[in-house]
Amino acid sequence: MNNSKCHLMLMASGTGSNVQALIDAVNHGQIQAEIVGVISDQPQAAVIQKAQAAGIESFISQPKDYISRKDWEQSILDFCQARSSDLILLAGFMRILSADFLQHYPQQVINIHPSLLPAFPGRQGIKDAYDYGVKITGVTIHYVDDGIDTGPIIAQESLKIDPNWDLAQLESHIHQIEHQLYPATIEKLIQEKLI
Ligand code: GRF
């Protein structure tokens, strides 16, 4: 990796606003890296259009199209390895990657989660925090292991919840933090790895 730009592979299942933030950060030179692909398990996901609009190769891989989970993961591994991926960034990728997959990329698969882990893991981190009535929530960037939103924490940013906010307002504030924190954290990691 020392003589060339870090290769980022992005994986997402949905809207892709974090993927867009990472694309923008690379295009503006805020991340010294190249995005080598976007992988999704959802053919209709808006993130696919975002990748296409940015001229980034996308790959759709659905478990149902493979005989086994192992074969599905192998298709993703092949796509990542063929593009010499250095870091795999999950951004709303709604499936668990197995320990077998992760051993190919130790400390190289990273996830963003919209709560202060270990509080409120799972699919609805923002809503769960809102419904619980916590006064402070936030965003976590962490290395991925084979659990659900577990794995060593890299960075966190907290957010004080205004009691007048509805859920949509909280979501909007969380996403604003995500779109700053993910690119900044990845750039910091890349710089540290290059030293
Ligand atoms: C984000 O809130 C992220 O933290 C979570 O899933 C959401 C994805 O949103 N893991 P988007 O597709 O990036 O807009």
UniProtKB/TrEMBL annotation:
The active site is at 113 (proton donor). Belongs to the GART family. It comes from the Bacteria. Signal peptide: none annotated. The record marks 149 as: Raises pKa of active site His. The keyword Metal-binding does not apply. Keywords: Purine biosynthesis, Transferase. Gene3D superfamilies: Formyl transferase, N-terminal domain (3.40.50.170). CDD domains: FMT_core_GART. One of its GO terms (biological process) is 'de novo' IMP biosynthetic process. N(1)-(5-phospho-beta-D-ribosyl)glycinamide binds at residues 16-18. It catalyses: N(1)-(5-phospho-beta-D-ribosyl)glycinamide + (6R)-10-formyltetrahydrofolate = N(2)-formyl-N(1)-(5-phospho-beta-D-ribosyl)glycinamide + (6S)-5,6,7,8-tetrahydrofolate + H(+). Residues 9-186 form the Formyl transferase N-terminal domain. One of its GO terms (cellular component) is cytosol. This is Phosphoribosylglycinamide formyltransferase. Pfam families: Formyl_trans_N (PF00551). Its EC number is 2.1.2.2. (6R)-10-formyltetrahydrofolate binds at residues 69, 94-97, 111. The gene is purN. Pathway: Purine metabolism; IMP biosynthesis via de novo pathway; N(2)-formyl-N(1)-(5-phospho-D-ribosyl)glycinamide from N(1)-(5-phospho-D-ribosyl)glycinamide (10-formyl THF route): step 1/1.
